[in-house]
């Protein structure tokens, strides 16, 4: 049985309750690039797609963003789609949008009803979060509140507090990504994820970036992380691995837990 809570859409767990899910990002610059990338990604059979709109050259034009998100939905069919506009200060691309512009864009995308989840950054504060949460929930969309530290891995109480802050702000899913510089950093994130998964009533996503954090992408589900990010055509963060590598490790873990073990 999974330690944490599975991600749900419309009252049902994604992918029949698979834990953890595998999500693949789309990071193309143009509409054509994104749709070509999507075709390649679908062949890998991910559980969730993420469109990283901060990579999109037309991000400043809402009508172009809506056009692309509709095109993604048309090709992806029923596969869950997450919309993410990652800020430069949290590891995203350097766009021309101010925080207020991002809020308005997120609201417009929610009202299009072409996505299933929307990632919004916890750092933006209560009022922007409230606006995006209301737009998401009014349209049956799950809100992922996220926090990214590309420099360090904070101490365990701080990590647990980030998860709880997301819950307090109304997140349906709380996401935390940190930079691991050592096995001790990685262990701290896994410990915080396990602690939070045992006390909070929402799904959690945790990632330790960099080579030392690779184990969190492969085995994070054992500690309560409901989703792992994998490489599609191009990575969107340091340390992402191919879908098939993550799936192979997950299968080995599931087999070892399902059958009898040799005590020797």
Architecture overview:
The protein has 264 residues and is α/β, with parallel strands linked by helices. The chain has one domain: Aldolase class I (TIM Barrel, Alpha-Beta Barrel), CATH 3.20.20. Helix content is 40%, strand content 20%. It has eight helices and eleven strands. The chain has a nine-stranded parallel sheet with strand order 9-8-7-6-5-4-3-10-11. The chain has a two-stranded antiparallel ribbon with strand order 1-2. Helix 3 links the parallel strand 5 and strand 6. The model has no long low-confidence stretch (mean pLDDT 94).
CATH topology: TIM Barrel
Number of helices: 8
Give the low-pLDDT segments.
none
Mean pLDDT value: 94
Q: Major sheet, described briefly?
A: 9 strands, parallel
Which architecture would the CATH scheme give at its second level?
A: Alpha-Beta Barrel
Straight-line distance between termini: 24 Å
The value of Rg in angstroms is 17 Å
Strand arrangement across the biggest beta sheet:
9-8-7-6-5-4-3-10-11
Report the CATH superfamily.
Aldolase class I
Indicate how many domains the architecture comprises: 1
Sheet-strand content, in percent, reads 15-25%
The share of residues in helices is 40-55%
Q: Write the element-wise H/E pattern from the N-terminal end onward.
A: EEEHEHEHEHEHEHEHEEH
Counting DSSP E segments of at least 2 residues, the number of strands comes to 11
Structural class: alpha/beta
CATH class: Alpha Beta
Shape: globular
């Amino acid at each position: 049985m999974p330690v944490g809570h599975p991600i749900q859409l419309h009252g049902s767990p994604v992918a029949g309750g698979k834990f953890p899910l595998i999500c693949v990002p789309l990071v193309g610059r143009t509409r054509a690039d994104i749709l070509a990338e999507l075709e390649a990604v679908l062949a890998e059979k991910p559980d969730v797609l993420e469109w990283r709109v901060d990579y999109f050259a037309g991000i400043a034009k809402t009508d172009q963003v809506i056009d692309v998100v509709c095109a993604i939905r048309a090709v992806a069919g029923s596969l869950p789609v997450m919309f993410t506009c990652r800020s430069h200060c949290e590891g995203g691309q350097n766009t021309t949008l101010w925080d207020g512009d991002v809020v308005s864009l997120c609201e417009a995308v929610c009202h299009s009803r072409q996505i299933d989840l929307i990632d919004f950054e916890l750092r933006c504060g209560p009022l922007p979060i409230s606006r995006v949460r209301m737009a998401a929930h009014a349209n049956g969309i799950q809100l992922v509140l996220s926090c990214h530290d590309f420099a360090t891995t904070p101490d365990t109480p701080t990590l647990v507090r980030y998860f709880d802050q997301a819950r307090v702000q109304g997140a349906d899913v709380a996401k935390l990504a940190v930079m691991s510089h050592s096995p001790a950093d990685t262990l701290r994130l896994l410990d915080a994820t396990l602690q939070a998964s045992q006390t909070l009533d929402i799904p959690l996503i945790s990632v330790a970036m960099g080579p030392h954090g690779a184990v969190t992408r492969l085995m994070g589900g054992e500690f309560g992380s409901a989703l792992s990010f994998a490489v599609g055509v191009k990575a969107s963060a340091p340390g992402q691995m191919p879908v098939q590598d993550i799936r192979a490790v997950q299968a080995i873990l599931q087999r070892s837990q399902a059958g009898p073990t040799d005590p020797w």
